[in-house]
Amino acid sequence: MRAAAVASASVTPTTNGSASLTNSNHFNFTSHRKICTSLPLPTVKNSHKKSTFVVVRAIKDRKETETETETETENMKEYNKESTTKQPQQPLSLEDVNPVGLGRKSRQIFDEVWRKFSGLGQISRTTRADDKEALDALLIREGPMCEFAIPGAQNTTVLVVGATSRIGRIVVRKLMLRGYTVKALVRKADEEVVNMLPRSVEIMIGDVGDPSTLKAAVEGCNKIIYCATARSSITGDLFRVDHQGVSNLTKALQDYNNKLAQLRAGKSSKSKLLLAKFKSADSLNGWEVRQGTYFQDAVASKYDAGMDAKFEFTEAGDAVFSGYVFTRGGYVELSKKLSLPLGYTLDRYEGLVLSVGGNGRSYVLILEAGPSADTTQSKLYFSRISTKVGFCRVRVPFSAFRPVKPDDPPLDPFLVHTMTIRFEPRRQRPVEAPAGAKQDLRSFKLILEYIKALPTGQETDFVLVSCSGLGVEPTRREQVLQAKRAGEDSLRRSGLGYTIIRPGPLQEEPGGQRALIFDQGNRISQGISCADVADICVKALHDSTARNKSFDVCYEYVAEQGRELYELVAHLPDKANNYLTPALSVLEKNT
């Protein structure tokens, strides 16, 4: 059983007060106030009297100087000339300034900055008329707040979908405190919605169910955090928000990336590379059907019971690879030598995605790598894939391929020149079928739509807050999960780097107070704070271990003895409180 991970998100008291703000939506600035009051400030006793005296004396001195200048102009010019040539200029002393006035002014500036900073942590913004210009000027001049700033955040624009939801509101403020440029997508910008968001957020009006309204929203965006969810259990709303909405946004972001790439006379690094598309009879050219057996020739004839396979383009417009294998130890396969566009190599990609259909059989995907000029030096690498009844998309990362000979080196995608899809009767499992229906696991049918290479990358492009199913009413749980899973599948096959978070039941309480469990396999049983989920969303944006991973997360709980579902990941509290990297490093990708 694969172990999940626990990462401690507990808050350790510090002198700078950063831990409580990093993981909580209930901000605590007590330690900041201590720092403020511990600064040596000048005494203000009789300050009005001293200040008045200084001002009066300055006016009096200026008047006397003007009088002397009018009556003794020539003497002053001569004196100034001699002073310039004979004596160096005297530096400014403390007697020439008013320390009380400077102290008072510095405190006024500090209090104003602190008031603006504290206002960012409020759930609803202030309605003062003079706040907008002052706050925007402060953010532009000073940049990200304190030590919460993240390198590269000032050059990153994040679109938050569902910014007024329980998680979205916290996500927006965490992004702002770290220096990101934030855009919020809302269906309507009425006064209630506008007042829920800080002034520095750019509000975009659009509907995730209408692709035409999303082009302007993704303009200039680098990443997307999707926190929206359907407010009703009506099937149409679930499909529009949780499934079609995710699909529309991924396509809009891909189109925007391709548009930028075309302006640079290139192709987007986030675009998939088409290796094969089966749309006509001519697209089958170059594919070869072969048969074989794992036994030696002397023994093979003893178990030869017949096998056959064909690859054809049907009248329905499908490319179908079908047949049967009755021979013990036999197999049939479909193979082709790859022909990549000029200037493209597979080392720039992280895996393959196949759009296939059929009767739910499993297959072996084989890649042959080596010098194309001398195939005798080629090495074989394989990975097993499973399909479903009907159409599905199968992602196979290059890291999942293992050498046929254990002594061979790991797969180098740069050297791949041939691809093979093999069917063998062994290790086949029955699929769900109507009661009484017979299944012959020795026959197969595979409908091929396309084969593409998935682009590589270091960071996540799209963070999706999904659902684990816990806390949902039993009467609507199946509908909700079906729509959520469909949205997840559309994100996985988009080619974008993704992180899918499935939290337990959401709770309105401070974050960072309890340890968290990160698991895969729908085994969690506890809830989690909205603030903790928001913190995971923000941390996943620049964490390479979060790319292309789906996981469940909830509060830590004690499992029954002998049924432990996770292992503890050691985590030393640090300033950044980066618990996500050790927690996700043990989880599988592309699941």
Automatic annotation (TrEMBL):
Residues 1-11 have a biased composition (Low complexity). Residues 74-84 have a biased composition (Basic and acidic residues). Signal peptide: none annotated. Residues 12-23 have a biased composition (Polar residues). It comes from the Eukaryota. Residues 162-256, 460-543 form the NAD(P)-binding domain. Residues 309-404 form the NADH:ubiquinone oxidoreductase intermediate-associated protein domain. Pfam families: CIA30, NAD_binding_10. It comes from Salix udensis. This is High chlorophyll fluorescence phenotype 173 protein. Residues 1-23, 62-98 are annotated as: Disordered.
